[in-house]
Amino acid sequence: xxxxxxxxxxxxxxxxxxxxxxxxxxxxxxxxxxxxxxxxxxxxxxxxxxxxxxxxxxxxxxxxxxxxxxxxxxxxxxxxxxxxxxxxxxxxxxxxxxxxxxxxxxxxxxxxxxxxxxxxxxxxxxxxxxxxxxxxxxxxxxxxxxxxxxxxxxxxxxxxxxxxxxxxxxxxxxxxxxxxxxxxxxxxxxxxxxxxxxxxxxxxxxxxxxxxxxxxxxxxxxxxxxxxxxxxxxxxxxxxxxxxxxxxxxxxxxxxxxxxxxxxxxxxxxxxxxxxxxxxxxxxxxxxxxxxxxxxxxxxxxxxxxxxxxxxxxxxxxxxxxxxxxxxxxxx
Length: 332
Known about the structure:
The protein has 332 residues and is an alpha+beta fold. It folds into two domains: 3-119; 126-331, Aminoglycoside 3'-phosphotransferase, Chain: A, domain 2, CATH 3.90.1200.10. The protein has helices spanning 10-21, 81-93, 126-132, 134-152, 162-165, 176-194, 196-199, 202-214, 255-266, 280-304, 310-331; strands at residues 27-32, 40-46, 51-57, 101-105, 114-119, 155-156, 160-161, 222-225, 234-236, 242-244, 251-253. It is globular. It starts with 9 loop residues before the first helix and ends with a helix.
């Protein structure tokens, strides 16, 4: 982390912690948790051996932000306290477990940034449990499958970010598939500018995106999805129950978009999450679009130059590039 991305200290976070839990518990220690690229995530340790987690949304904590964001775009930069609280309220309303919100602050009175304090779920991620003990992970994986079914049964009259739609807003774009196609074309252009292997097949990928999008039939309903749900975005609580995190990107969209991402991230464990009735044409378009996004996005992030784990981003981009080329070959 560069000087411009200085980690917050106990002194920095003490006023926020005091506002969240009161003055009877003293903040004894602070540690920055790994993984966050859009917000700072800090474990707050108190003098009574309890803990909480602070989320901090500021430019110094966001490796992706590149300027103003239009939330009418379903795939615009998903970061910020307003997206977080709207997503928290929606998930809570439909009965989906996520770390309990203890305090939210937009005033900057306790920290010069928007911030929230939430329950600290200490059981680790589902990703870690799947690697360490797949047998023990079976129960939370089943619960996650049921949670997803509950979410996907919750419908809205239009697609878009939950914070937008739940407040009566209207998104950009005429349909989910049109938004995905246009975003994929933009990702294709960006990836081709950074990677010669994509540039060499840019025209063929352009044509394939249009062909796949043209095959998708109309749809009038939109379901609640997480949007980027990998096993690293699921915590397991002390009772073995899953809890969703990194929820700012929650949106009403096609369930196929969720399942393309689930299949990619859960790999051999995806069978526990698979459902019937998904649209094969949407899956084909969304799979290619997702891989193009996972080439363009990581390469863009690496261009910034100060991401703390560049090897992981290069690995994501390389894997998705190979998948993109495979999809192109099989479509020929």
